[in-house]
């Protein structure tokens, strides 16, 4: 399996409704994009405030394999999400790694 971690930093703080809308869109990927084993997303509520650096939404997607992760990027629903946040995002951090058991 492969883990995909994403942290989103927006140019301006999002209101709670917009943040929740984006999170719900991300969570819906599980039923709509093949190869997703598990997905979680949410608002950053860390108490480590010195380390937030403006990142307000986190995403974790577990894929059944690396090929599923590769297919995720160009998937139309993923691309639609990327377009929906165009102009809102200041930075995104992505980390992908194989899950070793």
From TrEMBL:
Domain Stress-response A/B barrel: 2-97
SMART domains for the chain: Dabb
Residue ranges of the TM segments: none
Gene3D superfamilies noted in UniProt: 3.30.70.100
Positions in coiled-coil regions: none
InterPro entries: Dabb, Dimeric_a/b-barrel, HS1/DABB1-like
The protein's assembly and partners: Homodimer.
Protein name: Stress protein
